[in-house]
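Dissemination and training. As part of the outreach component of the grant, students in the summer workshop were shown how a complex can be specified as a set of sequence lines and then modelled as a single object. The example used during the hands-on session is reproduced here so that future cohorts can follow it. Participants entered these lines:
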Amino acid sequence: QKEVEQNSGPLSVPEGAIASLNCTYSDRGSQSFFWYRQYSGKSPELIMSIYSNGDKEDGRFTAQLNKASQYVSLLIRDSQPSDSATYLCARYSSASKIIFGSGTRLSIRP
Amino acid sequence: SQTIHQWPATLVQPVGSPLSLECTVEGTSNPNLYWYRQAAGRGLQLLFYSVGIGQISSEVPQNLSASRPQDRQFILSSKKLLLSDSGFYLCAWSRPLAEQYFGPGTRLTVT
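and obtained this result:
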C-alpha cells in the first residue's frame, strides 16, 4: 500500500470550472500535509500547507483535510489554462522526511 | 528570504564517468537538505537527506553518494555513472518539521 495515494489522471477540467484533486494517506498519525504544483520540466513549488482538520483558503486554492477519513483535497476555483500541471500531495513523515504521492496531472481545456 | 541554487542546470555525461552536482542554500542556517531524483514521467525518489553538517542518511542503495561539507552546501556524487542514473535531480531544503522548498533542478542525461 502506497503511503500517499493519488489518481494519476489526467484530470480534464473546462476553463472557469472547479478542479478537485484528491489524495489519501495510510498513516493515521500524520499531522502535516502539503500540495505542490509541478509544471512540465520544472521543479515542484509549494502551493499550500495544511495542518488542521477543515478548509484552508488561499486565493483560488482551497485545501481540505479530513484526518478521520485520511484524505486531503485541493480545490482550484475558476480554473485557468496556467493551472495545467501535475499536482503532488505530500505528508510530513518522521525522521525529517516528506512522503510524496506520485501526482495527478491536471489539464484545463479552454 | 531564502534561495536555493543548483548547478549545473543540464549535464550530458558518458557511462562510467564521474558526477558532481552541487546545491547551496542562502538566507537560512542549519537547514535540512535533500536530494531527489525524478525519472521521466515518474514521481520523486528520495535519495539522501541531511539534518546537519556531516550527517547523511541514504534512502536507496545505489552508486550515488552525498556529502555536506558546509552548513548550506549539499553535494551529490558518483564515481561511475550508469545509464539508469539519467533523470531530473532536485535539491530541496526545509526547516525542521516544515515544508520543503525545491531548487531549479539538474537534468542529467547519461549516454
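DSSP finds no helices and eleven strands in chain B. Students were then asked to discuss how this feature might be tested experimentally.
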